[in-house]
Amino acid sequence: MDAQITACFVRDIRFPTSLDLHGSDAMNRQPDYSCSFVQLKTDSEYEGNGFTFTVGRGNEIVCCAVEALSKLVIGTKVKDILDDFASFWRRLTSEDQMRWIGPEKGVIHLATAAIVNALWDIWAKIEGKPLWKLLTDMEPEKLVSTIDFRYIYDVLTPDEAIEILKEMQRDKSKREKYIFKEGYPAYTTSCGWLGYPDEKIRQLCKEAITKGFTQFKVKVGSNIDDDIRRCHIIREEIGPEKILMTDANQKWEVQESIEWMKKLAVFKPVWIEEPTSPDDVLGHSTISKALKPYNVGVATGEQCQNRVLFKQFLQMEAMQFCQIDACRLGGVNENLAVILMAAKFDVPVCPHAGGVGLCELVQHLSIFDYISVSGKLRVLEYVDHLHEHFKEPVIIRNGNYQVPLNPGYSAEMKEESLNQYEYPKGSKWQELFAGGFLKQD
Amino acid sequence: MDAQITACFVRDIRFPTSLDLHGSDAMNRQPDYSCSFVQLKTDSEYEGNGFTFTVGRGNEIVCCAVEALSKLVIGTKVKDILDDFASFWRRLTSEDQMRWIGPEKGVIHLATAAIVNALWDIWAKIEGKPLWKLLTDMEPEKLVSTIDFRYIYDVLTPDEAIEILKEMQRDKSKREKYIFKEGYPAYTTSCGWLGYPDEKIRQLCKEAITKGFTQFKVKVGSNIDDDIRRCHIIREEIGPEKILMTDANQKWEVQESIEWMKKLAVFKPVWIEEPTSPDDVLGHSTISKALKPYNVGVATGEQCQNRVLFKQFLQMEAMQFCQIDACRLGGVNENLAVILMAAKFDVPVCPHAGGVGLCELVQHLSIFDYISVSGKLRVLEYVDHLHEHFKEPVIIRNGNYQVPLNPGYSAEMKEESLNQYEYPKGSKWQELFAGGFLKQD
């Protein structure tokens, strides 16, 4: 705890996923899954890793923002940060001059997440616990002291947050045992990317069922006839009982969302994810009301910029499923705020994952939510890409996330992967440029 | 019009305003007023200038984002952009990979504004008109074709926008004549910065009255007793009839805003500006309702990230004064969308200005609003800093902006100023570093 942070390195890591249309949807047609990868060095044996996820171009801008923010971290004692984490978080997000270019949103907030996640990784390593265990073992008062409540006091006070946590202390160990045995339920998004041909979708559904998955998400929104055909294929493969989700990735207008989903309601999706602008709380509220009679809920959050937006989504009954993101929000601290607000409004937290390493991170938050906050098992996204680049990749068995055991936030990437995929100088990128497969920006 | 854009240069320009506490408020205690200054070169005689405003640190991140976006502009024919400006604007704001790090907010959107503003500057220069005149002379259909209506169709369709403009065609020339003669009403923010001592406030009020100002804004929010004292001083100086506005720069929680302003209501402020988070539409709606009996309106917008937020502020009656910003929104196109939405909801547009060059830009938008959209004179912020660095600085006479006459968007800075204040290599900064007055980041 006496360690001091001595350096902050950030690396622009990109994977050429656009070559295979992995991750393609109505809005992100050719993503190169990427991350701004942060390494916090200390004068002790502990090193913190954290990152934020992007989809390619622009990742260098986030790295630039990490550089700017790193000046607020370097030279600080770990103890001083952890003793009053909420204040330190405020110092990062409300730096006197940099706040202007957010505030608390977009590039500067993604960069904040990368650094803050690395700080939690250090903390968990110092305590010798996986992050979820650090969180579930922490005294409610201490945990709540890490949250900056600015702008959310009108729906959640620190006292209320402590109350929520205290109420769930009782059966914590029972739930911990359960989760060790059964794991945390996952749904798969890997079958239904928009760029995949029908036969590939069919094949991937079969494989997912064999692996034990019972919940499936399909991308929709570019063409209604295609969507009907693809939903039909998936329902044929998974049968009428298994769970189907749909995801439009912000493709529609408000009224269009309603009309479109009325046509897909026959396939019984439990939710439509991101029907329209992630900023349109009122629009999502209108869509929620209109689709309620069809038993289609609204899910959103992966591009929900901060706790203030989540607050309003909850207040206006504009989301029936709360999709926190480990990196879009300002790291663990702000995710805790949103998880606690969702609990107060009794809205299930079903995190966004996939991308690069989002599964590795967010599994910790879902396990914490189950053990310490909601006491209920929700469902956590799973995408089977790029896990091989992590030192402690997630483990899925029979459609369930297995509890991570190593100290930290599971955020460390392999040195070899970092060297190969650093953009643009990494060896894999140099090969792709030389072979004419991709062009350097 | 056949010109092609051949290069895009961006310069990190900062002014050391923190040395004098110019621009200090409850949230921005020591700003160094700055801008990311863009020069678009073409293969013709026309060059476009545009910029976005920041308050110092972090300006380099916005410059980095401009560099990334500039690749979408370089090599394009001006004609191809202007023939279908809405599509080009969409291409910038929804670039397949970069959209992720916004979308349409924060750093990437500020950078978009700088480039888009420079494109409008070129357009106005090609037509040989000041921007406001380019806009007011344009056929309604053409003007509306520059707007991307994505996510706002539920409150404003292109046809409705054309209708609003057509209805105001009739007396346009009468209003143009009027504005040439009288100018556009300004209010001054220069008297009431939070860092100023009482005597300076008193003195500045006296001077402003002598200059013909009748509307005054004071910063509040750090300490209620200070605020009462400062409001009292200003009312003493300006008398009971002149107009007073208050500005909290996001300092408060929702309930706190209401309680605080009840105590200041006795000074009869027409509005409280930015009481809380700029993202909290529902919060502003609550505050608006609570303060209505006290005749205090709510003003916000300078950090309102995009048209989707403005849409909701208008839908939920959460703003009684709509403060567009020429650089926070994605340039002229998105400002047109917001001005037209505000007209539909009959909410006055009273732009944010000040900073670096915001007065120079936004005067064009207010004049357009008056002549072509609302037909009403509102009030436009004025701060008397840093105008000397512009080739065509705003002219204020008797508390009114005088109509700008030169072709373009008044965005060009003096080459000498650019060289002196480029950060960190400019001569002024080198002097400050050498003298120990400021430290380089």
From TrEMBL, chains A, B:
The top EC class, named as a word, is lyase
Record keywords, A-Z? Lyase, Magnesium, Metal-binding
Q: Which cofactor does it need?
A: Mg(2+)
What's the Enzyme Commission number for this chain? 4.2.1.68
> Lyase: present as a keyword of the record?
yes
* Biological process according to GO: carbohydrate catabolic process
Say if the entry is tagged with keyword Lyase. yes
Instruction: Tell me which InterPro entries the record gives.
Output: Enolase-like_C_sf, Enolase-like_N, Enolase_C-like, L-fuconate_dehydratase, Mandelate_racemase_C, Mandelate_racemase_N_dom, RHMD-like
Domain of life of the organism in this record? Eukaryota
Annotated ranges, domain Mandelate racemase/muconate lactonizing enzyme C-terminal: 198-294
Q: Which reaction does it catalyse?
A: L-fuconate = 2-dehydro-3-deoxy-L-fuconate + H2O
Which GO molecular function annotations are given, in alphabetical order?
Answer: L-fuconate dehydratase activity; magnesium ion binding
> What family, per the record?
Belongs to the mandelate racemase/muconate lactonizing enzyme family. ENOSF1 subfamily.
Please give the PANTHER family that the UniProt record associates with this protein.
ENOLASE SUPERFAMILY, MANDELATE RACEMASE (PTHR13794), MITOCHONDRIAL ENOLASE SUPERFAMILY MEMBER 1 (PTHR13794:SF58)
Protein name from the UniProt record: Mitochondrial enolase superfamily member 1
Species: Acanthosepion pharaonis (Pharaoh cuttlefish)
